[in-house]
Design goal:
alpha+beta, 3 domains, six-stranded mixed sheet, 12 helices, globular
Length: about 400
């Protein structure tokens, strides 16, 4: 671990978010383990516990990658560690320490092994689909190190070590997924949508996709967790957006505001056809602006026909898009959506895109303020933003479109 602080332009950190190593370093100085390595202390090579169940799939070395069945070193009702619907009710430090207790035993696999899994991989797949915690006994080759997972897209995970042996017991495959798992003629995308319609959470769906448990027989693939989360958010939101485009437009501007520890979430729903944008402003002292002196704003958007390129802002784009599409479907209406997030000093650990998805879902459970004009809606929003509203307006592509095309600006 390097001993001295490296100063990097904040605009580079905001674009990279620890994923692309744009700074040229071999580690991310923002999410370095020094911040959390003592949160959970475990020594030894043998672990026994109740897995929620939990599974992580790495991406380095693709298509030869590591798959990690995971468990905390204690038994009991650990299901909350994988249930994203409960995470917002937890203290953030308790959430992180709980997730970092998930110790990972890794085995090397080829991504296409999912099409014809051996006994061990098949047991890892099936146990990961359990609807209740799974008894796990795991032996690893060496003591766990400080290689925890802290990532903008991925939910925190504890340290790993090469897996020597593993035993599973007392698992019950979720009946919502059992038929889909054994249906080797069903496309992965159809499986994702099917599980969502059956009420399975995004975390459970993406885990099934990661494990290679979805898709037609010969095309089943093990998918890195980082990719499976975004693929799940995107596939479901694509389906919902196609559906809501046929609904009647909303007839007023609706503003939603949610304040959380270190964050502000704002949504403006506007009359018109489907458009969407997600913007973030990182203040000095926040996760991706650790080295800056001013606020860094980044924003991505799409028009009626969507976008053809991956948003530079990352997977949170699709997690927030999913929450918006769910809201419009609930309303049986359509319109455009501008979502902005402000991240304040002190919020300085990446915890995954679930945090955006679940906060935006919660945002839309609140009662909105309604306005007849966009100008009035913006004036109301300006009461809450720490960023000058002029800066948000200057960045917003959807705002420029609405100003140019609406009669009731």
């Amino acid at each position: 671990m390097p001993g001295k602080m490296v100063r990097i332009p904040p605009s580079l950190c905001v674009k990279c978010r620890g994923a692309k190593m744009l700074c040229g370093l071999s580690y991310c100085p923002v999410s370095i383990v020094d911040k959390v390595k003592k949160v959970y202390n475990f020594t030894g090579n043998s672990i026994a516990g109740s897995s929620p169940p939990s599974l992580f799939v790495g991406r380095y070395g693709y298509p030869k990658i590591n798959i990690y069945p995971s468990t905390p070193p204690f038994s009991g009702d650990t299901g909350y560690l994988e249930d994203e619907s409960k995470w917002l009710s937890l203290d953030l430090n308790d959430f992180i320490s709980g997730r970092l207790s998930l110790l990972r035993g890794g085995i090397k696999v080829s991504v296409d092994d999912a099409s014809n899994p051996d006994y061990r991989l098949q047991e890892i797949q099936v146990s990961s689909l359990s609807s209740t915690p799974v008894d796990v006994e795991m032996t690893v080759e060496r003591s766990f190190r400080d290689n925890v997972v802290l990532d903008e897209n991925i939910t925190p995970m504890g340290p790993s070590s090469p897996l020597k042996s593993i035993k599973f017991g007392n698992y019950h495959i979720d009946n919502r997924i059992e038929k889909i798992y054994y249906d080797r003629d069903l496309k992965a995308s159809e499986g994702v949508i099917g599980l969502y319609r059956k009420g399975m959470g995004i975390n459970g769906i993406s885990k099934a996709l990661s494990a290679g448990s979805l898709g037609t027989g010969k095309k089943r693939r093990i998918v890195p967790t980082r990719w499976s989360i975004t693929a799940t958010d995107k596939s479901i939101s694509d389906s919902l957006v196609d559906e809501i485009k046929d609904y009647r437009e909303i007839d007023s501007f609706e503003v939603y505001v949610r304040k959380t520890e270190g964050n502000l979430f704002i949504a403006i729903l506007a009359p018109g056809q489907w458009m969407f944008e997600w913007g973030e402003s990182w203040f000095p002292g926040s996760t991706w602006n650790s080295f800056g002196d001013s606020v860094e704003i980044e924003l991505d958007s799409e028009g009626y026909h969507g976008r053809k390129t991956y948003p530079a802002i990352g997977g949170c784009y699709y997690s927030s898009r999913l929450a918006v599409a769910e809201k419009y479907k609930e309303m049986k209406r359509t319109g455009s959506a501008m979502l902005w997030r402000e991240i304040y000093p002190g919020f300085n650990l990446p915890v995954g895109v679930w945090y955006v998805r679940e906060n935006v879902r919660e945002l839309f459970r609140s009662k909105p303020e309604k306005f007849d004009t966009l100008n009035d809606a913006i004036k109301y929003v300006s009461k809450f933003t720490a960023v000058d509203i002029k800066a948000w307006k200057a960045k917003s592509n959807n705002m420029k479109y609405l100003v140019s095309n609406l009669d009731f600006y």
